[in-house]
Amino acid sequence: MCMSEREGEGQDAFWIPTQDIVKTEGHPFYQALNKILAQHGFDRFVERRCRKFYKEGGRPSVPPGAYFRMLMVGYFEGLDSERGIAWRCADSLALRRFLGYALTEATPDHSTLSVIRSRIDLRTHKQVFRWAVIVLAKAGLVKGKTVGVDSTTLAANAAMKSIVRRETGQKYEEFLAELARNAGLEEPTREDLAKLDRKRKKKGSNKDWFNPHDPDAKITKMKDGRTHLAHKDEHAVDMVTGAVLAVTVQAADRDDRQSLQQTLDEAQANLRAAARDMEVRRALPERERPKEWVEEAVADKGYHGNAALLKTQERTIRTYFAEP
To answer: Are 142 and 267 in contact (CB under 8 A)?
Structure first.
């Protein structure tokens, strides 16, 4: 075998016979996942739940099953943006097969994903998540006794420079220019405004400012020390099997001790649904069925506080929270 040299980018052939296209064996994980989804009727389930969000007639839209599969790809591959998910699915032959798209079909782009996400309400997304928890329970992968809770802040798709005053609607740059004029600078430059902003203390209060494009995003200090508009993602995980039992998105300025109860509520609601599902009861003997109520909660020191501990104790949940 001899080594050939790269001759530059060149130009793709205009016509390529279908039989000449290189075909892969597919990704074993996604092949197995598709078999599980088909076995439990995933596409029929999401189509029934999402039918009300689609109009009759018109050009064909992205099937709900493909949309939720793309969200799965984002989760399994650590992609936190719709643009990244869309690019990855368009670039991979294995993921095209997982989504059900032929080589001659274009996969959904990021703007299409955004439109579908805004069209399908939060309640339906929660129903699909609960469906997945029930499928895990049928396989004996949900115990529900001991749950670990943790959170992280996620930067919002909104810029700090776009925030406005709640009372007046005044833009942040206009506010800084007014402060500069009051300080004696008649025609402040951008450098002057940036310098003035750096010197100010407590310059970003969620009580005074918000972003009109994403009102739920909160001004938050990220782990790297920078200030961004962000959301708080909190999840509950089965400590025995690693199954994710609940995910909540809350205000980023909420303390862990304040957000804990909402995530435990969501986890217990999903556990009750799994424990009472008739197919789960038929699939598992009674001793292996998931608990209907969380019995123990594990969390880091950010969740340790008198109020949080008392509220959790009132729910008869034993806590294993690290002390500060």
So the answer is: no
Q: Cα–Cα distance between 238 and 267 in angstroms, integer?
A: 10
The tokens for 51 are: 């039918």
Backbone φ and ψ for 278, nearest 5 degrees, come out as: -65, -35
**Shortest CA distance to 139 belongs to which of 292, 1, 320, 288?**
288
Mean pLDDT across the stretch 158-171? 86
| Range list of β-strands (E), the chain | 146-155, 164-165, 209-210, 218-221, 227-238, 244-251, 296-299, 318-321
Report the alpha-carbon distance of residue 88 to residue 81 in Å, rounded: 11
Residue 260: name the closest of 219, 213, 311 by CA: 311
Q: pTM for the complete prediction?
A: 0.84
Torsion sign (Cα): 68, 70, 73, 79 = negative
Helix H, strand E, coil C: the string for 123-162 is HHHHHHHHHHHHHHHHCCCCCCCEEEEEEEEEECCCCHHH
- Kindly tell me the sign of the dihedral angle through the C-alpha atoms of 154, 67, 245, 148: negative
- Name the more confident of 201 and 183: 183
Return the pLDDT at 24.
64
| CB of 66 closer than 8 Å to CB of 108 | yes
Question: What's the longest Cα–Cα distance across the chain?
Answer: 78
Q: What is the pLDDT of residue 226?
A: 83
